[in-house]
Amino acid sequence: MIDSPVLTTWRSGDTDALAATVSDDVVFSSPVADYRGRDAALHILGLIAAAIDEPRSIRAISGADDAFHRFVAQVGGTELQGVLHEERDSTGRLVHITLFLRPYSVLRTAMGTMRRLLETSPLPVRPE
What we know:
By secondary structure, this protein is of the alpha+beta class. It has 4 helices and 6 strands.
């Protein structure tokens, strides 16, 4: 099965390896908002690693410049189901990562956890 650099990061909690695979202008589209740029995307993806437990890939489908990964994880002891869509540029770097999650009740729990994590570790400010 094709492995996702994002799922690998969520399992390990280490964003260093992911940093090498994303473009400077990467966009991460979460169920709540879009995060633009390497620093913001890596920060949010790293916080997600702290908000979910035991992410496990169920199925992967890939094309020449993108891949879909179906996965499950735990949030507060309840199963979260997700799909991760990773789009790459001609150099193989991730340019757009989209996350779909369900069910809504578990997503709400995860959103509460993310809100608390962002309070203690806010998004990096992009210089103007």
